[in-house]
Amino acid sequence: MIEVNVNGRSHRVDVEPKTPLLWVLRDALGMTGTKYGCGISQCGACTVHVNGEPVRSCSLPVSAAAGKRITTIEGLSPDSSHPLQKAWVAEQVPQCGYCQSGQIMQAAALLARNSSPSRGEIVKHMNGNICRCGTYHRIIAAIQRASKEG
User: CB–CB of 2/66 below 8 Å?
Assistant: First the structure.
């Protein structure tokens, strides 16, 4: 049994220590907001926070996350009132929506460290989170809006 703290709650899961955190979240805990995209840490769809830092959960063994604070998109705001979530709606960011939880979690880590990032800082920080629909300009606009309204 491995104990993980997800969204402020402790969970004991019966999985192999090398099981990727993504599958523990989705399959063992039923938190399906975190998405599987590529399985090799290249797309960012599986981004969660571990001790406040964005990580790709598809390649992080659950044993490496044990004893740390894990935050998923479900834990960012229970009522979708996080400034980024509101800005995502206001800027009409999603098209297919598949990458959005990873995009939001990556952006939330940036705003937690820098509440007023420049456009260049946003682009640099978000580099590596892929949106197949190509809504990058709306993602940037939403992050800028959240930084002003948050």
Answer: yes
For residue 24, list its beta bridge partners: none
- The pTM of the full predicted model, rounded to 2 decimals, is 0.96
Q: Would the pLDDT of 58 be above 80?
A: yes
d(CA 91, CA 140): 10
Amino acid letter for position 6? V
Compute the distance between CA of residue 71 and CA of residue 78 in angstroms, rounded to an integer: 12
| Span 17-55, pLDDT tens digits | 999 999 999 999 999 999 999 999 999 999 999 999 999
Nearest in space to 73 (alpha carbons), one of 57, 95, 91, 92: 57
All residues at 6 or more sequence positions from 61 whose CB lies less than 8 Å from its CB, including other chains:
17, 18, 19, 20, 21
- CA-CA distance, 109 to 96, in Å (whole number)? 23
